[in-house]
Amino acid sequence: MNKRPTIRDVAAMAGVSVATVSRVLSGDYPVANATRTKVQRAVRELDYVVNAHARALSGSTSNVVALVMYDVVTPFFAFIASGVEYQATESDRLCLVCTTHGDPDRELEIVKLMREQHADAVILVGGVNMTDDYRERMYRYAKGLEDAGSRLVLCGRPSLGPDFPAITVEYDNAGGAFSATSHLLSSGHRRIAMLGGPIGNTTFDARLDGYRRALEAFRVTVDPALITHGDMSQDAGFRQVQRLLAEGVEFTAIFAANDFVAAGAMRALRAAGKSVPDDVSVIGYDDTPFAPELTPALTSVHLPHEELGRTAVKLALQRGEGSTRQHVMLGTHIAMRDSVRPLI
Amino acid sequence: MNKRPTIRDVAAMAGVSVATVSRVLSGDYPVANATRTKVQRAVRELDYVVNAHARALSGSTSNVVALVMYDVVTPFFAFIASGVEYQATESDRLCLVCTTHGDPDRELEIVKLMREQHADAVILVGGVNMTDDYRERMYRYAKGLEDAGSRLVLCGRPSLGPDFPAITVEYDNAGGAFSATSHLLSSGHRRIAMLGGPIGNTTFDARLDGYRRALEAFRVTVDPALITHGDMSQDAGFRQVQRLLAEGVEFTAIFAANDFVAAGAMRALRAAGKSVPDDVSVIGYDDTPFAPELTPALTSVHLPHEELGRTAVKLALQRGEGSTRQHVMLGTHIAMRDSVRPLI
DNA sequence: ACGAGTAGGGTAAACGCTTTCTAAGATCGT
DNA sequence: ACGATCTTAGAAAGCGTTTACCCTACTCGT
């Protein structure tokens, strides 16, 4: 095993100084053609590659973007990751991926690691519980990262205010829920069950809010009995519908917190001998890839997942005045399929 | 914005030398308790974090594991990534994720980047076209990475031989296909269509091979008319079944290259008025999360995705003699669900 | 023909750590 | 009480780049 060559070896072989080699490699300084050629040949000959750490230490950017999310397999996160990865390589950056599984300690640990790494951007993805503790934590993160020269990006979670030193890239959670609910309402449904997510989570609170606002816009009173909560799993959807049925709550449509919950709901409905969409219409959220594969194909609120990720990176990497605290909100739309039917 | 503190600042504040600070931080050298406390207080006071690049430059490990795959959203890859990420953080490593989308140039580029980064391990995931060009490319990669002190891991693709300087972690593709096909055969099916993947891809060739071997084991002659090829998409599955039907090829069961293809096949069957599993049994591969959500729930070959990822990292990080060219093969099993029915 | 300007390239000082080498006290056996 | 041994800590030499600074040799305009 050969020791890997350094820039000095290249310089020696090419018969120039290390400064010249460095200049040829970064290409931002005039170098005579003959010299450039000699250096390039030496590089090829030795199969030389720069040492990224030395470069990062000397220069000051690490060319790394960090992505911090709940997990890596949930389609919601996977698609955002896809967008981030895409834009990162587009911008000649590498992409570090970390998962928290919801553990704040792990999150703290990761932010520390990213400060160590001098990541150009740290992108925190997904809804949260908006507590004072959370705000304070974020403030500490923002400070630490700023000192390390990193941009903090909140992706798919609300802004912490225009004064907060972070970029925010969200999508219109409440708006999507409003559309979805309105879609059911204008199809004639009035008894619409809302299978919510965990209480306090910004994402699901916003979806619930959109639901409420749509009902109000249609002058339908919000019946608390129709609103349930659970985690975001299929099982949760299943059980919530089971309970609703057991309690004899009447409804002709369901708006689910996300597609997993919707899938569980449809399963419970089927188990109870109810047909979707003949007896009950169902609409989901996130437009997960399996939505069109369900029977019936699930109508769902489509999110610009990948664009969310791409935008996060793009904004974080863009330099210049005021670029540290932008706020963008992306729109959603309904992907209409077969799980909703007008009430006659 | 404060400049971030360095180890010298900590040393100054604690009234000790930088060497002592370094030793307190790495904790592998005896330091008096009083001194340790002083240093730790200074660290907390200044909110100091080490500079990972300086550390990597000085020491010689970067504590980074790189994952190179086709994409990030396909469940097959996402679950492997999940395992890699898990084991990486377990081993105090960060996880760099790169995608190739099948582009060899991009792959080359990534390997170069990983040499620059001194990644502890570079994990290449997924099936490939086993050409001479490929072997040669891998050999170059292995050389370059070895010189950079990185381990090369081939994950979910065949070994390049015991002399090749890489670790291989595969799962039993042919074995899984053998089991799946045997399952259909022992349910009485004899006319089993095989909806294959792209020709030449190691993964799908192996699955096809397992199919063949199972038929032979049951003394059923392999009918080429029953074997089709396509990419691994749902559309491909749909079209392949459509064509089979149009050509009047008779079959009572389908073994699909993967679950996407199986989903497409079921759709085509339904479109043609055939019932699954009453008219045709279907079995998929990969046991994707949506498999149980299909109607009927899809029987599929379950892969140890996460374990594959975890094992890749574990082997790559384990030091010692002979640890650079191990080869492990993980087993598969059939997840039985509702898409297969015995032929009476 | 001459000073200004520019292209091309070398020298050496950072960058922020780890680690080897060295040395001063403290502790101990005899 | 005195060398030997241990513990603890500092000085300084890298690690492999980038870049500020400096210098030389041309090219021009006049």
Describe this structure in words.
The structure is a homodimer of 344-residue chains. Chain A has 344 residues and is an alpha/beta fold. Chain A has 3 domains: 7-50, 434 Repressor (Amino-terminal Domain); 64-172 and 305-329, 3-Layer(aba) Sandwich (Rossmann fold); 173-303, Response regulator (Rossmann fold, 3-Layer(aba) Sandwich), CATH 3.40.50.2300. Chain A has 12 helices and 12 strands. The first copy, chain A, has a 6-stranded parallel sheet with strand order 2-1-3-4-5-11, sandwiched between helices. A 6-stranded mixed sheet of chain A has the order 7-6-8-9-10-12, with helices on both faces. The first copy, chain A, starts with 6 loop residues before the first helix and ends in a 9-residue tail after the last strand. Chain A binds a DNA duplex (30 and 30 nucleotides) through residues 6-8, 16-20, 22-23, 26, 29-32, 35, 50-51, 53-60.
